[in-house]
Amino acid sequence: MAKRGNLAEPTELRPAKKSKSDDKKEKKEKKDKKDKKDKNNGEKTVEASSSDEQTGYTQASALTDLPQSQIDQFLEENVIKITDSSTEAAPSFRPIISFDYLPPCNEDLYAPLKAFPAPSPIQAATWPLLFAGRDVIGIAETGSGKTLGFGLPCLKKLLDSKRTRKPYHPTAVIISPTRELAMQIYDQLVKFSHVAKADVTCIFGGVGKDEQRVALKTAAIVVATPGRLKDLQNDESVNLSKVKYLVLDEADRMLDKGFEQDIKDIIAPMPVSRRQTVMFTATWPKSVQALAATFMNSPVTVTIGGDPSADPRANTRIKQDVEVLDGREKENRLIQLLNRSQRGQNPEKVLVFCLYKKEAMRIERLIKMKGFKVAGIHGDLNQSDRFRNLEAFKSGAATVLVATDVAARGLDIPAVMLVINVTFPLTVEDYVHRIGRTGRAGATGHAITLFTEQDKALSGGLINVLKAAKQDVPESLLKFGTTVKKKQHDAYGAFFKDIGTDKKATKITFDD
Ligand SMILES: Nc1ncnc2c1ncn2[C@@H]1O[C@H](COP(=O)(O)OP(=O)(O)OP(=O)(O)O)[C@@H](O)[C@H]1O
User: Fold this and answer.
1) 123 C-beta closer than 6 A to ligand 1
2) Is ligand 1 within 6 A of the CB of residue 440?
3) Test site for ligand 1: of 152, 313, 351, 412, most ligand atoms within 8 A of the Cβ
4) Relative to the CA of 433, which ligand 1 atom is closest?
5) Where is the Helicase C-terminal domain (predicted)?
6) Sequence spans of domains, the chain
7) How far apart are the CA of 278 and the centre of ligand 1, in A?
8) Protein residue closest via CA to atom 22 of ligand 1
């Protein structure tokens, strides 16, 4: 039987009764912590503070016993920065640097973690905060395990809660920009929830609503794309007023103009004071940061690998090559590159990105004509074809996948060796997400970008991404200029493109 129930009720957050001397001691500790935090401009020092009755999270004593130098080394090596916007003196916790230090849980929730050697830095640093009920913004490179970063605390909270009162309203909602990504998050959670017998469902557009309505009657955790969730909320198939854990995955995309209103509508029945709000992403442009703050309650921002306000940062294990050429040479060059990677005994998995749906269809036809095993994924395909083609690529039945930016974010496809950008995306953030489909979970990867004069408005941003990841910047790219222009277009990035030969093509659309 599926296990259901609400997340930790506010009563759990209430401190136990204390004596006067306890109170004095606590006040002094809080003041010391606050002074320390103020000195650091809001940036927290992660010291041996071990538990706080107010949070419901108790740090493992073995973790508390570790020497501070070991914690400092972990934070330093992984370039972890923790910034707490709270004006209250909040407790600081040590990163959970080993699975041994996870807090006890009432089911064997942690069993599937045995597949991994240790928590990834974003998991280690955000888990204690999330277990403690804080609002968190987690920013870390592509492929660094963010899904379990927000997923594990979500499942643990569900398991720890005892409530079984009917009707069953969802207690956690995870929103993702695309159907495939929603499915993938669902698949990851199910591996864990299966052990924990929690009831998870996945809701997205492009398929019938009836089954989804049935699933929503019992689901405790809902993974969804925004449009369909809003539809089902509007026709009262789901009541989100009991949601206590809200995740925006790919948060910068979810807060972009295209989705902003949907998100506001969806979360309207879940007051910020009663929910824990969690945002994870690999890119965090300034343009969304103020809006994000309005959705959150004194969030803690955890960044892995450097300043998120600077240029978007690509995973440094991906080798990035940029080839500047004439637009008319692109197709020949693409086929040359595929010849290199596809002709041997074991053809590599290659992901080819286009900007427009029509362009993607044309490129897919071309690749098929050349005899390669290719599949496509873009917004004009029906949902079952999208899932089928993605599966074909995952299984290796197709070794080349031609995609629009609908596949740029989040998708975790095993062993993608090469990403080829046939047409540059509309923003450098999208570029970072696209190439992030390779080099996942500690592996290395390779990305080749075909860059033409038409893309020159983004040369400055791209040069900065290359430099930040210590990649070579070709002279031919530098000549387009290093100025970084501000993002101007709300839904599609700064620069509306003239797309030359393919003028009738439709732009990418994201999911409902
Ligand atoms: N602690 C861990 N150690 C090793 N691998 C892990 C760990 N946690 C998760 N993974 C694996 O790493 C891969 C990438 O994880 P995930 O898809 O969550 O990345 P992500 O950070 O969300 O990437 P993106 O920014 O592209 O969405 C997955 O295959 C996942 O199973």
Assistant:
1) yes
2) yes
3) 412
4) 26
5) 333-481
6) 61-304, 318-479
7) 17
8) 146
CA of 91 from ligand 1 middle (Å) equals 28
* Ligand 1 pocket, mutate which of 97, 99, 110, 116 (most atoms under 8 A from CB): 116
Q: pLDDT band for position 162 (50/70/90)? A: low
Query: Helix, strand, coil: what percent of the chain each, to 5?
Result: 40, 15, 45
Contact partners, residue 129, CB within 8 Å, separation at least 6: 93, 136, 300, 302
How distant, in Å, are the alpha carbons of 10, 373, 377, 384, 418 from that of 389? 45, 11, 7, 8, 18
Ligand 1 nearest atom to the CA of residue 117, by list position: 3
Model confidence band, residue 165 (pLDDT cutoffs 50, 70, 90): low
Radius of gyration for the chain, computed over Cα atoms and rounded to the nearest angstrom: 23
Cα–Cα distance for residue pair 39/366, rounded to 1 Å: 60
Closest ligand 1 atom to the C-alpha of 147? Answer: 18
pLDDT reported for residue 15: 27
Give the confidence band of 196 by pLDDT, cuts at 50, 70, 90. Answer: low
What is the rounded average pLDDT for all residues in the chain?
84
Query: Alpha-carbon distance 130 to 10, whole Å?
Result: 15
Establish whether residue 146 lines the binding site of ligand 1, counting it when its CB lies within 6 angstroms of any ligand atom: yes
**Domain 61-304: what homologous superfamily?**
P-loop containing nucleotide triphosphate hydrolases (3.40.50.300)
pLDDT of residue 240: 95
Alpha carbon distance 259, 266 (integer Å): 11
Residue 322 pLDDT greater than 50, yes or no: yes
- Express as a percent the part of the chain with pLDDT over 90: 69
CA of 473 from ligand 1 middle (Å) equals 29
Across 226-383, the runs of DSSP E, i.e. the strands, are 245-249, 276-281, 300-304, 318-324, 349-353, 374-377
Q: Give the residue, by CA position, lying nearest to ligand 1 atom 5.
A: 441
> What pLDDT, on a 0 to 100 scale, did the predictor assign at position 54?
58
Q: How remote is the CA of residue 127 from the centroid of ligand 1, in Å?
A: 15
Q: Tell me the backbone φ, ψ of residue 137, rounded to 5 degrees.
A: -110, 120
The CA 410 to ligand 1 mean position distance, Å, reads 9
The strands making up 349-353's β-sheet, listed across from edge to edge, are 318-324, 445-451, 416-421, 349-353, 400-403, 374-377
Question: Which residue's CA lies nearest to atom 25 of ligand 1?
Answer: 142
ipTM of the predicted structure? Answer: 0.99
Pair of tokens at residue 425: 């995306």
CATH H-level, domain 318-479: superfamily:
P-loop containing nucleotide triphosphate hydrolases (3.40.50.300)
Name beta bridge partners: 200: 221
Ligand 1 centroid vs 148 CA: distance in angstroms? 7
Residue 466 · residue 323 · CB < 8 Å: no
| Tokens 């006040």, located at residue | 27
Pairwise pLDDT comparison (278 vs 383), residue with the higher score: 278
